[in-house]
Amino acid sequence: MSAHSKKTKFCPRIGKSCLEDKCVDWVAYPVDRVNKLTGAVVTEAHYMCLDHWRVKIAFDSARFADHAGAAIESFRNAVKEGNDQTRQIMLEHRHNATLPRQ
Q: Total domain count for the chain?
């Protein structure tokens, strides 16, 4: 067991205690943080089982999909409003063009 974990974790894949850094599914994920003393951005490697990373990535993907959906809806509303204004201007222009001149 490595120094990353104080307690033994059960691995459902092998049916035993987690092998951690001896396992092929033990991966590093880069995480950026800001050093409070210097203000510099520091990239650290966080190690975790690939199965745990899949869960985290799935949650992040769902959150980003929600944000993308909201942005698309906002864009659609803006385009619809512009189209409605254009349609109104064209209708007014058509109405003014068909009136007899005096």
A: 1
